[in-house]
Amino acid sequence: MRTVISADELRTGIASLARRLETHYQGQPVMIVGLLNGSLLFLADLVRELRIPVEYDTLRVSAYRGEATTAGAVRVEVGHVPPVRGRHLLLLDDILDTGATLQAVTELARGWGALSVRTAVLLWKRDRTRAGFLPDEYIREIPDVFVVGYGLDYNRKYRQLPKIVEFDPSIPAARQGLPS
Ligand code: IMP
Ligand code: MG
């Protein structure tokens, strides 16, 4: 099992992210909204590390990807809209891949009346991200490999792992040191 980020590195990475956010928000309250389900563990650990006033909520988005011709086109369906009017909004996701999901949500969120909208992700696959969109904050840049753990899944599995590891769907999970 090839570790991409160990549990220790996640802890220190999230702690330094918290310090950067404290500097950015200068004591102002922030509404942190985590995209379900991938950002749940990240959200839980980040809010406990932050020393500024925080509220948090979650957002379930269904992203329907088009065919190759419309690659990156994502329709976002939002059920519950978090109360962000008049607040600084920080959107969290596990990973920024093409950027389609976070870009669509960011555009939606701008219409919700937040004072500001920023994004933070654990991982950034920079080489795959469409031009013109980048995360405001990220913990680690990674190459184009598939990863699972700490919120990231393969067919809804492996989100519970305390670290992030590479995963090859063409090889049986047990042979990669993962529960099958
Ligand atoms: P994007 O819209 O292309 O940026 O994709 C973001 C979403 O794709 C993430 O929220 C993940 O659910 C999923 N994703 C992208 N890369 C990976 C990966 O390596 N492992 C697990 N999920 C991934
Ligand atoms: Mg996912």
Describe this structure in words.
The protein has a domain at 3-64 and 83-141: Rossmann fold. It has three helices and nine strands, in the order E-H-E-H-E-E-E-H-E-E-E-E. The chain has helices spanning 7-25, 40-49, 100-110; strands at 3-5, 30-36, 54-65, 74-78, 88-96, 116-124, 137-141, 147-148, 164-166. Helix 1 (7-25) packs across helix 2. Residues 66-71 have low confidence and may be disordered. Magnesium ion is lined by residues 38, 153.
Gist?
The chain is α/β, with parallel strands linked by helices. It is built from three helices and nine strands. The radius of gyration is 16 Å and the shape is globular.
Layout of helices and strands:
Blueprint (H helix, E strand, L loop, with lengths): L2 E3 L1 H19 L4 E7 L3 H10 L4 E12 L8 E5 L9 E9 L3 H11 L5 E9 L12 E5 L5 E2 L15 E3 L14
Parallel strand pairs: 2-3, 2-5, 5-6, 6-7
Antiparallel strand pairs: 1-9, 3-4, 8-9
This protein binds inosinic acid and magnesium ion.
